[in-house]
Design a protein that fits this description.
The chain is an all-alpha fold. It contains one helix and no strands. InterPro entries: PIGBOS1 (IPR057394).
Length: 54
């Protein structure tokens, strides 16, 4: 059905990678930011409780 006679051009590959990175950041960026904020906050409270008890 579809046949390729030559490889993809470099600008097309770079453009596809750029689109993938931008869309990935748009989709997964806010949930990941929220996750890391929560994780850092939990780590900080764990350290504080360890220094108080230790």
């Amino acid at each position: 059905m579809f046949s390729r006679r030559r490889f993809l051009s470099l600008p097309m590959v770079v453009g596809a990678a750029l689109i993938g990175v931008v869309s990935g950041k748009a989709i997964f960026g806010p949930p990941l930011d929220e996750y890391w904020k929560k994780k850092l906050q939990d780590d900080e409270t764990t350290r504080e409780s360890n220094t108080r008890s230790g």
